[in-house]
Design brief:
Blueprint (H helix, E strand, L loop, with lengths): L12 E7 L3 H14 L9 H4 L15 H4 L8 E6 L6 H8 L4 H6 L1 H6 L26 H18 L2 E8 L16 H9 L7 H11 L4 E3 L9 H10 L2 E4 L5 H15 L3 E11 L2 H6 L2 H19 L5 H4 L3 E8 L6 E11 L5 E11 H21 L4 E2 L22 H15 L14
Parallel strand pairs: 1-2, 1-3, 3-4, 4-5, 5-10, 6-7
Antiparallel strand pairs: 6-8, 8-9
The structure holds nicotinamide-adenine-dinucleotide.
The site of nicotinamide-adenine-dinucleotide has 37 residues, from α1, α12 and α15.
């Protein structure tokens, strides 16, 4: 076991920078503003509401996580962001239609103060939207340097002690790793040459890393998921995490699939379809952006069920995922799952799940927790991929050569054991007392 690191205290202001100030970002911001005034509860957030068991069960020690380990408090957070659409956070939240007018009116003035900085945006990578609030520059490196300058200005103007960045921008088109993503040098050269395989989200991630700012990616596009950035983050002690917030249907999948596997029930079909009508749904209506999302959603089942170990149970699964843009529903997504399972002697059974969820309501606590836990990781000097934050992602980044852990319960265990380790407590194994 590695020694517990020194953790600097969470004093002063924490700037939370959000590239992409749409539905998820504004629901997060408004929620934090409401919660810190005591006007609403931050439901779904582990950093705010969850306890952590310490020591043996007989000790009866279960403090709130935030009381156990020093975390930035909601009052210390200052929000900033970028978006090609110039709406302030209030206008954007009204447009997103997630939160009620009653809620938004209570924090209207603070939301109106949060105006997006001009974005590094290119319709080649997100084809279904555009806006006038964009940066121009001689090449991609120039644009990345402008983001770095924004970060420094924000920090100074808002008197922040530390910053974190969480990508809440649209899903970009599907891109593959290339030689340009191998080292920091090849990436920098690639930016100068305006390489097509460098998307705007990578420019934000680059700027964050170069400014020493922890970075998480809430969308499925590559962004910081390649060797050049992982190595740099590891070497410089900067935490990174990704990809794609685990909400809605995939959350359900990673709750259900581990249960079927735990009971050795077989599965031969899992069909998932969604209707979604928000701006994210419009972006995902483009096949190139959907491909990025599809890859992210499809990996889950294979990794949880391990068909190589259980060919009789999971060797022949037909897994299909569809997302259909359907404007009347707005942010109120509906996700249907039909699961064909089989039990004793191969007898077939079916399970139907119909989840009427609110996408951004499920995503907002994830953004808050990632910001707060990335800040903790940064203060503890933990560099590179933070696998203990896999809990929050559909497509968790992991070290080269390892497979991602998708099982929500293993992820939760890992998250809490990491917190115990950071707090100098014993890991919990759930073995009975006689085995201690
Ligand atoms: N809501 C969820 O449950 C959920 C779950 C997983 C992932 N996500 C992902 O989170 C992201 C945000 O979702 P949303 O519902 O808020 O979408 P949204 O469309 O409401 O907001 C995204 C915003 O990003 C902006 N944007 C796009 N490219 C940008 C760039 N290069 N720089 C700055 N801003 C940029 C857009 O103008 C838009 O305002 C999407 O990629 C989505 O796929 C959402």
């Amino acid at each position: 076991m590695q020694e517990t690191p020194e953790i600097s205290t969470a004093k002063g202001r924490l700037g939370v920078l959000l590239p992409g100030m749409g539905a998820v970002a504004t629901t997060t911001i408004a929620g934090v503003l409401l919660a810190r005034k005591g006007l609403a509860k931050p439901i779904g957030s582990l950093s705010q509401m969850n306890t952590i068991r310490l020591g043996q069960r007989t000790e009866k020690r279960s403090p709130l996580i935030k009381d156990f380990i020093g975390l930035a408090e909601l009052d210390q957070i200052v929000f900033g962001g970028w978006d090609p659409i110039p709406d302030n956070a209030y206008e954007s939240a009204v447009n997103a239609g997630v939160l009620s007018n009653e809620h938004l009116e209570l924090v209207k003035n603070e939301l109106m103060e949060i105006k997006p900085m001009s974005a590094a945006f290119d319709t080649e990578y997100v084809t279904r939207l555009d806006g006038p609030n964009k940066k121009t520059g001689s090449n991609k490196r120039d644009i990345a340097e402008q983001i770095r300058a924004d970060i420094r200005d924000f920090k100074e103007k808002n008197k922040c002690d530390r910053l974190v960045m969480v990508w809440c921008g649209s899903t970009e088109i599907f891109l593959r790793h290339g030689s340009v993503h191998e080292t920091m040098e090849s990436f920098e050269k690639g930016m100068e040459d305006n390489e097509q395989s460098i998307s705007p989200s990578m420019l934000y991630a680059y700027a964050a890393l170069k400014e020493g700012v922890p970075y998480a990616n809430g969308a499925p596009n590559l962004s910081a998921d390649f060797g050049a950035f992982e190595d740099y983050a590891q070497a410089e002690g900067i935490p990174i995490a990704g990809k794609d917030f685990k909400t809605g249907q995939t959350l359900m999948k990673t709750i259900l699939a581990p249960g079927f596997k735990a009971r050795m029930l077989g599965i031969n079909g899992w069909f998932s379809t969604n209707i979604l009508g928000n701006r994210d749904g419009a972006v995902l209506d483009d096949p190139a952006s959907f491909k990025t999302k599809e890859e992210s959603k499809l990996g889950v089942i294979d990794h949880i069920l391990q068909p190589n170990l259980y060919p009789d149970l999971y060797g022949d699964i037909y897994h299909k995922v569809r997302i259909n843009y359907y404007p009347p529903r707005g942010d109120d997504k509906e996700g249907w799952d039909n699961i064909d399972i089989f039990g004793w002697l191969d007898y077939p059974m079916q399970i139907k799940v119909d989840f009427l969820c609110k996408d951004s309501i499920l995503a907002a606590p994830i953004v808050l927790d990632l910001a707060i836990f990335l800040d903790l990781a940064g203060r503890a000097g933990l560099g590179g991929i933070q696998e203990w934050l896999s809990f929050y992602f559909k497509s968790p980044q992991c070290a080269p050569g390892l497979y991602p852990e998708h099982d929500l319960f293993i992820q939760n265990w890992k998250l809490k054991n990491t917190l115990r380790w950071l707090g100098g407590e014993d890991q919990i194994t759930h073995l009975g007392r006689e085995y201690y």
